[in-house]
Structures are given as structure tokens and as C-alpha cells.
TrEMBL record:
<dbReference type="GO" id="GO:0004143">
    <property type="term" value="F:ATP-dependent diacylglycerol kinase activity"/>
</dbReference>
<protein>
    <recommendedName>
        <fullName>Diacylglycerol kinase</fullName>
    </recommendedName>
</protein>
<dbReference type="InterPro" id="IPR016064">
    <property type="entry name" value="NAD/diacylglycerol_kinase_sf"/>
</dbReference>
<dbReference type="InterPro" id="IPR037607">
    <property type="entry name" value="DGK"/>
</dbReference>
<dbReference type="GO" id="GO:0016020">
    <property type="term" value="C:membrane"/>
</dbReference>
<dbReference type="GO" id="GO:0007165">
    <property type="term" value="P:signal transduction"/>
</dbReference>
Amino acid sequence: MASRQTAGLSRAHRLAQGRVIRFHLHSSFPVQVDGEPWIQPPGCLEISHRGQMFMLRRPSEEPTGHAAAVMSDVLVNAECNGVIDAAQKRLLLHEIALRLSS
């Protein structure tokens, strides 16, 4: 209960339901999707359900962790700006993850 009030989600509202939901945010606001709430900064927020998803995590202090976070951010921005589509972004993220893990 305390976490909902901290993030401003004491009275949550369902906005949409579907396989892929995309929000273009012009200002920060509280969000909760299947877990802990957070304050979402302005940008593009895509929520999708697939058989397998990449998990977002805080970048590590290692150079590869920082590089992965930067590449992920670049791909999300490219998708939000219409440079690439969601399938291309997923394929590129998968390829980056494979190469960074080897």
C-alpha cells in the first residue's frame, strides 16, 4: 500500500487492454504494469505481451552494461521516431544481447 501512495497510484485506472499498447508521453506520470509502480519520464512507452521478452535492468558499472543501456535507448528512440518498427527493434535487441553475452 505504501508503494502505491508513494508513486501516486492509490486510485489506479485501467487505460487499455491488448497485445501491444503504445503511449506517447509528453510529461512524467505514475505507472504500474504487473508489479512495482514507478514514475515514467516523457517519451514512448510500449507495453507488449510476447512469448519471450527482454528484461530491463539497471545498467551495470561495467563498460558492456553501459553500452547495452545506450544501445537499448537508441533503439527505443528510433522506434518511437518511426525509423524502425517493433519487429526490427526486437531483432536488434536480441542480436545485441547475444553478442554481448559471448
